[in-house]
């Protein structure tokens, strides 16, 4: 088969669909985290439908509450971020691992569509609860259950998408990574807009949750369109068929793009092989692929992506969010310094790094430069720890000016996005086409393992400052 027989991705439709699916994977969770202040406020003060920003009457009511109730609410607020991290990371790691082993037993369409619908329902309930009065303790417990559900289904969704992208050329993992990066940019801009407009927490949170629902619906529509595209169907066949049959299969797909089999009762035409065009699902094959062998082939890339996110989450945002401006004084820059310098700068440059892999991929998948550059990111640990992190107890401030911090954050974020995207693109290309989906799912597991390890190391990095 020659390259002339390969179909083209017309109008970059498949690329754009994967970009939208990547956006739909992380934007809901990014908006959920952006509303953290809304959640902590609701577990501090007994709420009604319009009292997320406490007014005078709420202050009087809170001051008249029993001391034991106050203590309970304060303790819930104090532990909210830690419990949220635990409830997010454990399901994320567990279900990504399960997806790596069980993806051949559950159809791909069930995993992806089921996860998107489940996350959509959780966010619809979350949006409705903005208007519903609940006591702090039940609200806290219910929120943690929602966090576990979002990250459980999010893990299955992310692992399945990377496995799906592994069936296509390496450049089609890049739009997923780019879409995920853009999700962080949207969340950062939303946070800045909320500060600039002085919106109430309840109004901002409701807007976040409804926006997340809209994005999930668009992602569902995009996924349903995917099996109708010839470019996608062609690469699905590469997984199911031997290389000797591909030319015949491609011709048949081109002649009958709308059906996957003959209608009931219709006989196949003589002398022509019956096309079998699969929907976006993962059908078990007769061959069982050894996960150990796949791991051996992608071990360097898998460990690299794990190391990248261990360093990134170890520093961001646990350390970087505690950096204080040295030039703001009493001006408005003090209010915008952290949302702009930390979150917006990180998300923009992370997105740029992820997006660059769509047009430029260096070093190659077998190059020693790639793991060397990954390890070189260790330099950001001392660089960021020596910025103006406050409060601090052991280390001195060496890079006090805001410009140093912004420069380090830009390089830190760009290297994270670019190198992580390279690893995720190259991983499935280190194995046979029939094993690419499994390799993509395993790469997603090591990505999540890096997130979990980073969350653990974040306590160490913050403690030594």
From TrEMBL:
Keyword match Transport: yes
Localization terms from the record: Apical cell membrane; Basolateral cell membrane
Residue stretches spanning the membrane: 12-32, 79-98, 110-130, 136-169, 181-199, 205-226, 294-316, 336-353, 374-391, 403-427, 439-461
Family matches, as InterPro entries: ENT1/ENT2 (IPR034764), Eqnu_transpt (IPR002259), MFS_trans_sf (IPR036259)
UniProt keyword list: Membrane, Transmembrane, Transmembrane helix, Transport
Membrane topology, record value: Multi-pass membrane protein
Any matching Pfam family: Nucleoside_tran
Extent of Basic and acidic residues compositional bias: 264-275
Any single Gene Ontology cellular-component annotation: basolateral plasma membrane
Keyword Glycoprotein attributed: no
GO molecular function: uridine transmembrane transporter activity
Ranges where the record places region Disordered: 259-285
Top-level taxon of origin: Eukaryota
PANTHER family noted in UniProt: EQUILIBRATIVE NUCLEOSIDE TRANSPORTER, EQUILIBRATIVE NUCLEOSIDE TRANSPORTER 1
NCBIfam families: 2a57
Family stated for the protein in its record: Belongs to the SLC29A/ENT transporter (TC 2.A.57) family.
Protein name stated in the entry: Equilibrative nucleoside transporter 1 isoform X1
């Amino acid at each position: 088969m020659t390259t002339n027989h390969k179909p083209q991705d017309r109008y970059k439709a498949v690329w754009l669909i994967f970009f939208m699916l990547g956006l739909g994977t992380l934007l809901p969770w990014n908006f959920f985290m952006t509303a953290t202040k809304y959640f902590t406020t609701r577990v501090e003060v007994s709420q009604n439908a319009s009292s997320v920003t406490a007014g005078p009457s709420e202050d009087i009511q809170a001051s008249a509450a029993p001391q034991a109730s106050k203590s309970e609410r304060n303790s819930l607020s104090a532990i909210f971020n830690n419990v949220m991290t635990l409830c997010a990371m454990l399901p994320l790691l567990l279900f990504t691992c399960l997806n790596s082993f069980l993806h051949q037993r559950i159809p791909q369409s069930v995993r992806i569509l089921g996860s998107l619908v489940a996350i959509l329902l959780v966010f619809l309930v979350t949006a409705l609860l903005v208007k519903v009065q609940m006591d702090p303790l039940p609200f806290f417990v219910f929120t943690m259950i929602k966090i576990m559900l979002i990250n459980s289904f999010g893990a299955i969704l992310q692992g399945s998408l990377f496995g799906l992208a592994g069936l296509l050329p390496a450049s089609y993992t890049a739009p997923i990574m780019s879409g995920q990066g853009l999700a962080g940019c949207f969340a950062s801009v939303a946070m800045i807009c909320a500060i600039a407009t002085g919106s109430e927490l309840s109004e901002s949170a409701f807007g976040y949750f409804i926006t997340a629902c809209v994005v999930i619906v668009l992602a569902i529509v995009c996924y349903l369109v995917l099996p109708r595209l010839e470019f996608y169907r062609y690469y699905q066949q590469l997984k199911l068929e031997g290389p000797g049959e591909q030319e015949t299969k491609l011709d048949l797909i081109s002649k009958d793009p709308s059906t996957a089999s003959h209608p009931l009762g219709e006989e196949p035409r003589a002398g022509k092989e019956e096309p079998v065009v699969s929907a976006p699902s993962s059908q078990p094959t007769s061959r069982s692929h050894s996960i150990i062998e796949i791991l051996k082939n992608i071990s360097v890339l898998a460990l690299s992506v794990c190391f990248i996110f261990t360093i990134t989450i170890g520093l961001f945002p646990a350390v970087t969010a505690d950096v204080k401006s040295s030039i703001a004084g009493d001006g408005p820059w003090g209010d915008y310094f952290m949302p702009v310098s930390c979150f917006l700068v990180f998300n923009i440059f992370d997105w740029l790094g992820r997006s660059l892999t769509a047009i430029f991929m260096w070093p190659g998948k077998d190059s020693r430069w790639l793991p060397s550059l990954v390890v070189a990111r260790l330099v950001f640990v001392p660089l960021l720890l020596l910025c103006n992190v406050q409060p601090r107890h052991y280390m001195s401030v060496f890079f006090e000016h805001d410009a140093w911090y912004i420069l380090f954050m830009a390089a830190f974020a760009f290297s994270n996005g670019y190198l992580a995207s390279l690893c995720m693109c190259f991983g499935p290309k280190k194995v046979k086409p029939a094993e690419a989906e499994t390799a993509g799912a395993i790469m997603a597991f090591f990505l999540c393992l890096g997130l979990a390890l980073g969350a653990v190391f974040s306590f160490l990095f913050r403690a030594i400052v």
